[in-house]
Amino acid sequence: MNRRRLGRLGWQIGEIGYGTWGIGGGEGGWTGNEDAQSLAALHLAVDQGVNFLDTAWIYGRGHSEVLCGRLLAERPAERIYVATKIPPADRRWPSTRTSRLADVFPPDHIRDYTERSRRNLGVDRIDLMQFHVWEDAWADDPAWQDTMADLKARGLIDGIGISINRWEPWNAMAALRTGLIDAVQVIYNIFDQAPEDELFPLCRDLDVGVIARVPFDEGTLTGTLTLESRWPEGDWRTSYFVPENLAASVARADRLKPLVPAGETMAGMALRFILANPDVHTVIPGMRSPAHVRANTAVADGRGLPPDLLAALRDHRWDREPTEWSQ
Fold first, then answer.
1. Cα angle value 18/317/218 (rounded, 5°)
2. Could you give the angle at the alpha carbon of 101 between the alpha carbons of 99 and 104, nearest 5°?
C-alpha cells in the first residue's frame, strides 16, 4: 500500500482509506450490511495496508464508530488513524445559507458528541474530528474556534477537519484561511472535478490534508447501475437516485465504459483517476465486504493511468448544483 502525508498533520496514511458509512446501517444509510462481514472487511483492510478510517456518529447513530472501536481494540499493535464527525444539532444535511452556527454546532453540542465518539471508539484522543456540514459564513465565529481549541488543548482531539457539503468545494475556503483547519473531506471523482479549481491549490499552499470521498459517485462510477436499478426501502440510494438523477448518471457512466482499460474495472479506473492527483492524500471508498476491500486496495500499487486516458477522463467533468435529492 502506497502512503501519502496527510498535510501538516504529518501522518503517513494509505492511499486507500476506509469509508464506513456503508457498515453503519440504520435509517438513512445503506442496507445489506452485517456486523460479522463488516468486521471481517475491516480486518482484511488493515492486513492490506489500510491505516485510515473515516466514520461519523450519524452512521448508525454511533454503530459505525463502535465497529471501528472494536477493530482498534483487536489490533492494538497497529497504528490506525480514525476520523469521525460531529453531526449537526438540527440534523439537517447539508447545511444551507440560512443555517446558524448556534443551531448547528453550539459549543455544548460539540463537546457532547466529542465525548460520545470517544466512548464509541474506545479512545482517549480522537485523531481527526470533523464538522459534518459546514457554512463558510461561520469561519470567523469564536464559538467553534474556541471550543475546538479547548478540545485540542485538553488532548481530546488531535486534528480539526471539515466535511464539505456535496458539490460545494468553495464552501470552506474562508475556514481554511483561519489556519485552524488541518484537513478537508470533499467529493472528488471523474465527474466531480471542481475541487481542482480553487480548493486544492489553497490546501496545497496551507498544507491542509485532503480526503477524497464518494469516489464512485454513490455507485455510478462502478458501471453497474442501470435504469432498472432499485434498492430496499430505507436505503439512502432510493432518495438519491431519483429518476432524473438515475437516468443522467447511467447515461454518463455508459459513455465512460469504452475508456476502461483492458484488465481494469470502471471502479478501478475511477480510483486511479483520483490518485493521479498528488493534491489528494487518501481516498475513502465504502467497503462493506472483503471483496470490496480486495478490489479497492489493489489500486494503491503505484500504477497510474496513461496520460492520454487521464486527458480523456477530464472531458467527463460534470458540474452539478445541489438539489432537494442530493443530500
1. 35
2. 75
Residue 9 pLDDT > 70, yes or no? yes
Are 304 and 264 in contact by the 8 Å Cβ rule? The answer is no
| Rounded distance between C-alpha atoms, residue 299 and residue 272, angstroms | 7
Helix (H, G, I), strand (E, B) or coil at 9: helix
Distances (CA, A) of 132 to 22, 110, 165: 16, 11, 8
Q: In what order do the strands lie in the sheet with 126-131?
A: 18-19, 52-54, 81-86, 126-131, 157-163, 183-187, 209-213, 282-283
User: Over the stretch 277-293, which tens digit does the pLDDT of each residue have?
Assistant: 999 999 999 998 999 99
Produce one character per residue of 52-72: b if its CB has 16 or more CB atoms within 10 Å, e if not. bbbbbbbbbbbbbbbbbbbbb
Query: Of 304, 317, 289, 286, whose CA–CA distance to 216 is shortest?
Result: 286
Interatomic CA distance for residues 236 and 24, integer angstroms: 12
Secondary structure, 3-state, 228-288: CCCCCCCCCHHHHCCHHHHHHHHHHHHHHHHHCCCCCCHHHHHHHHHHCCCCCCEECCECC
User: How buried is residue 106: exposed, middle or buried, by Cβ count under 10 Å (0-12/13-18/19+)?
Assistant: middle
For the segment 216-243, what is each residue's pLDDT rounded down to a tens digit?
A: 999 999 999 999 999 888 888 898 999 9
Instruction: Using pLDDT thresholds of 50, 70 and 90, give the confidence band for residue 120.
Output: very high
Cell of 156: 481530546
Predicted TM-score (pTM) of the model is 0.96
The residues near 214 (Cβ < 8 Å, ≥ 6 apart) are 166, 187, 188, 189, 192
- How many Å apart are CA 254 and CA 249, to the nearest integer? 9
The partner residues of 16 in beta bridges, in order of sequence, read 283
Question: Which residues, at least 6 apart from 310, have a Cβ–Cβ distance to it below 8 Å?
Answer: 273, 276, 304
